[in-house]
Amino acid sequence: PKPKQTTMVFTRFVEIGRVALINKGSDNGKLCVIVDVVDQNRALVDGPDTGVKRQAVNFKSLSLTDFVIAIPHSARSGPVSKAWKKAGVAEKWAETSWAKKLSARAKRASLSDFDRFVVMVNKKKKNRIINAELEK
């Protein structure tokens, strides 16, 4: 019998140059780059173009993205910034459904009471039109 071909379950690994989203703390919602792995719980991250200062962050506070930029081990902020701009990470991130969902969630959270009322009225109008077309 031929041995089974196994496939990797995970595709996003903690590696130097991996772009991550910080999901806890004062930098919540900002993108950063993993510059070095401190130990099994923390990584040294830097985000010179996103306002994230160079710091050690717990892996539980990071969400790994699909993007990887080519930087050397323990690169300083200058080369990280150049590699970030060269790879066009900010533009690529803005096109992802993940980023669009986060921005929509933030926009929805900032709505006033009247704005929520307008959204409800418009949704009702849209549903009436759809139901009228479906009943034909």
List keywords for this structure.
136 residues; alpha+beta; five-stranded antiparallel sheet
Describe the structure.
With 136 residues, the protein is an alpha+beta fold. Helices cover 40% and strands 24% of the residues. It is built from four helices and five strands, in the order E-E-E-E-E-H-H-H-H. The protein has helices at residues 77-87, 89-95, 97-109, 113-135, and strands spanning 18-22, 31-37, 42-47, 52-58, 62-68. Strands 4-3-2-1-5 form a five-stranded antiparallel beta sheet, covered by helices on one side. A hairpin with a 4-residue loop joins strand 2 (31-37) and strand 3 (42-47). It is extended.
Helix content: 25-40%
Q: How does the helix and strand content classify structurally?
A: alpha+beta
Distance N terminus to C terminus? 60 Å
**Number of distinct beta strands:** 5
Query: If helices are DSSP runs of H or I spanning 4 or more residues, what is the number of helices?
Result: 4
Based on CA inertia axes, which overall geometry fits? Answer: extended
Radius of gyration, in angstroms, nearest whole number? 21 Å
Low-pLDDT regions: none
Q: What percentage of amino acids are in beta strands?
A: 15-25%
Mean pLDDT: 94
Give, in order, the helices and strands: EEEEEHHHH
Strands of the largest sheet, in order across it?
4-3-2-1-5
Major beta sheet, specifics? 5 strands, antiparallel
